[in-house]
Design goal:
The chain is 45% helix and 20% strand. With 141 residues, it is α+β, with helices and mostly antiparallel strands. The chain has one domain.
Amino acid sequence: MRLLEDKKGQIRMIEAFFAAMLLLSSLSVIPMVQDYSSDSTENLSSTAHNILVSLDSDGYLAGLIGNESWINLKSCVQSSLSPMMWFNLTVFDENMTCINDFPITSGTAVNDRIAAVDYVCASTSGNYAVYIVRLQLAEVD
C-alpha cells in the first residue's frame, strides 16, 4: 500500500525517461561530421601501393627502371589508373638521388589532397641495385 502512495520514485523515473529522450533526440539532430579527406587519402594510398606491387611482379618495375624506360613506365602507370586520376612518379637510388631525368607525370597537380607512397624494389639482374619509387596520386575534382 505504501508503494502506491509514494509518488517521488515514479516522478524520478519519468524525469529520467524524459532526460534520456532529450539527450537521444539532440544527438539525432546534430549532423554527423565525416572526414572525407582521410578516407580518400587512404584509398589513394592503397591504390598507389597496389599499382607498384603489381608492376613489381617478376622484377618488371626494376627492369623498366634499370633500362631507363621512363615512357614505358609512364604508360604502365597511366593504364592502371582511371583518366580522372593525377599521378607523379619519381625514382630514387639508395642515396635518395633522383634517377629519372624525364618527368613521369600526367600533368600538374589538380588539388591539395595528394597521397604519396614510397616503394622499395631491387633489380634481379647481375648489376644489383636498389630503387625507391615514389608514386603520388590525386583525384581530379
